[in-house]
Amino acid sequence: MRGNARRAAAAVFGLALGAVLALAQVAPVQAESNGGVRVLPLGDSITDGFNVPGGYRVNLWQRLAGGGYTVDFVGSQFNGPASLGDHDHEGHSGWRIDQLDANIVTWLRATDPRTVLLHIGTNDMNQNYDLANAPARLSALIDKIRATAPEAELFVATIVPESDPNLEARVRTYNAAIPGIVAQKGSRVHLVDMHEALSTADLADGVHPNAGGYDKMAARWYDALRSVPGSLVPPVGPPVGTPVGLVNPNSGRCLDVSGASTTAGAPVIIWDCHGAANQRWTRTAAGELRVYGDRCLDVPGAASADGTRVQIWTCNGGAAQRFTFRSDGAIMLTSVGKCVDVASAGTANATAVQLWTCNGGGAQRWSTR
């Protein structure tokens, strides 16, 4: 009985701490980006790393780096040790499914993840919060993620076990519904059986994993990611016909027509992302990047010299307006094999955009927003 009481007290403490943190969310001191594939760790205190700062994210990051994958963890939260190469995440201690649901659209629009790792439901179980409808809430959250980020690969985990028999019974009932939910959500939604990866011996306080438990979670996430190769590579360009922003992760700024000019020959620069018409680019099946409907990203005379400025021009179907999106995030002028580049790898507003020899650097990487 004393052991159960201690575990129950630890669980209540974790929930109480989570509630305080949920009421006092603070913007991260910084956010990290290496231009890699954007992965959003999403959930509650287990994603945050309660008891073990960074939680599963530490060992997952190390496994990904060791496997040769370039990954950019994203999210509005920031924590973890130096051994975690990227501290960004979206784990909120004490939060339930409905609380994630209320914020998910904002987070997805801010981070544009390629891949989402979702582990949520523990607080619904521990707070005895409308248990019968917890699977339906999860289903609705999945639908909202799919609608907001339709190209993302979403990995949905069953939740880890709990030591208290009553809580574990709730966990098992909830987990039993998850495979059927995932099976209905399409080819980009994937089940990860996290419950079977851990035992109660892997828990620090009856609810949250200890270091070994978090490492087991990392191994299970890593295997799941590698089983879906597309989850660890960036999509090759935006979908045809959909206006998007094109952000340079090195600077966090967007491909922009200077001064919102519509004049043929207006220079292209980088500027704070704001989503206005001069930052909305539409890829066509012909390889164009259109802005304002009838202007195209253009290299004067289809030139090939390093340093040639990039501009907009009336769309004409010529070679100077046909671009290829490479798997490393670069945008290449197909006819000459050179890339759209931020001059001198600059990060300031109004830095010029030019043509340059493709080199895979951060100045030549572009992601959709």
Can you walk me through this structure?
The chain is an alpha/beta fold. It has 2 domains: 2-232, Rossmann fold, CATH 3.40.50; 246-368, Trefoil (Acidic Fibroblast Growth Factor, subunit A). It is built from 8 helices and 19 strands. The strands form 4 sheets. Strands 1, 2, 3, 4, 5, 6 and 7 form a 7-stranded mixed sheet that branches. Strands 10-9-8-19 form a 4-stranded antiparallel sheet, with no helix packed on it. A 4-stranded antiparallel sheet has the order 11-12-13-14, with no helix packed on it. The chain is elongated. The relative contact order is 0.11.
Features:
369 residues; alpha/beta; Rossmann fold; Trefoil (Acidic Fibroblast Growth Factor, subunit A); seven-stranded mixed β-sheet; four-stranded antiparallel β-sheet; 19 strands; 29% helix; 20% strand; disordered N terminus
